[in-house]
Design a protein that fits this description.
Layout (H helix, E strand, L loop, with lengths): L2 E5 L4 H7 L1 E5 L9 H4 L9 E6 L2 E8 L4 E4 L11 E17 L4 H4 L21 E4 L1 H15 L3 H5 L3 H39 L15 E4 L9 H4 L6 E4 H8 L3 E3 L5 E3 L26 H11 L3
Parallel strand pairs: 1-3
Antiparallel strand pairs: 1-7, 2-6, 3-4, 4-6, 5-6, 8-9, 10-11
Helix pairs in contact: 4-6
């Protein structure tokens, strides 16, 4: 299961009634924008969060893979324009959540490119955007907390309301289990790949103690395409101390494997961290593009 955020406005109500999401294929210049082309990635069983006027107002589960067809309509004249369409089952939220109200939790999870939201918490122009596993779990937790009813409130609800609430929480439970299991499996597989590639040693301090070794992505998962996320060369095996420094952008490597240290670390403390400015480690050629990305976008000079 993959997750997406769809940016809907005036089309939301009609698309909900139709049980679809739909986008054109080409813009007026004959180009295929990434936020329309991404529709082709949606598969049956994928999760979609629906954003309307600053808030997540619904979730849906794709009931079909994306296909090309003329958009069905309820209230407007039929057109002959073909587009990307996905059949979905909508789960409108009784209590929507406003992105701005939870911005401190959401902002750190945004990718450097192709984010659904701008730095001021407003939505980006476009249609369909990726939603990382971490953001999916965060959205799930927020939705659960806002829509949870206490026992006294439950007593005043109608049978239909109770069934709708239980249906939402059952969906959230399934989502959480699937996402967490998928993350565990991916992390375990990624660690084994890194142990093999880096011969189970930290290339900075040469520690060789399995319990202390951590595998970390050079291009973080939230920023990676599917093929990049699963690429074993998009990572490095480091001891726990150096892994944290790398993940926080306090150290990095360039395309030749040379170590760079952030000015946020006092040079007097280099020896405490076993860091040597410009130390060169042996890297794989396939690491270069990922290490360069980390240095450009994730490193704090």
């Amino acid at each position: 299961m993959r997750s997406f955020i769809v940016m809907q406005g005036e089309t939301y109500e009609e698309d909900k009634d139709l049980g679809i999401i739909w986008s054109p294929i080409y813009d007026k210049a004959g180009l295929e924008p990434h936020f329309w082309s991404r529709m082709k990635q949606v598969k049956k069983g994928d999760l979609i969060f629906h954003y309307v006027k600053g808030a997540i107002v619904a979730m849906s589960i794709a009931q079909s893979d994306c296909r090309e067809e003329v958009k069905p309509v309820l209230f407007r004249l039929q057109t002959e324009e073909k587009g990307h369409v996905v059949q979905t089952t909508y789960y409108p939220l009784e209590i929507s959540f406003i992105i701005r109200d939870f911005w401190q939790e959401i902002h750190p999870l945004l990718p450097a490119k192709y984010s659904a939201f701008q730095d001021d918490a407003s939505g980006n122009n476009g249609y369909l955007y990726p939603c990382s596993e971490e953001m999916t779990l965060t959205f799930s937790r927020i939705i659960r907390s806002l829509n949870k009813k206490n026992e006294e409130q439950q007593l005043s609800l109608s049978i239909d309301d109770i069934q709708q609430t239980n249906s939402l929480f059952s969906l959230l439970d399934r989502i959480d289990v699937q996402v967490k299991m998928h993350l565990q499996q991916e992390q375990s597989h990624f660690l084994e790949q890194q142990r093999t590639l880096w011969q189970e040693r930290c290339p900075i301090c040469d520690i060789h103690l399995p319990a202390l070794m951590q595998a970390t992505h050079a291009k973080p998962i939230k920023d990676s395409l599917l093929e990049e996320k699963n690429d074993p060369y998009n990572g490095i095996l480091l001891c726990a101390n150096h892994a944290i420094l790398y993940e926080e952008g306090l150290i990095t490597f360039d395309g030749s494997g040379r170590l760079h240290i952030s000015q946020q670390i006092d040079p007097e403390d280099y020896s405490k961290f076993q860091l040597v400015q410009n130390k060169k480690i042996k890297i794989h050629p396939e690491n270069k593009s990922y290490f360069r990305w980390h240095k450009r976008y994730h490193f704090h000079p």
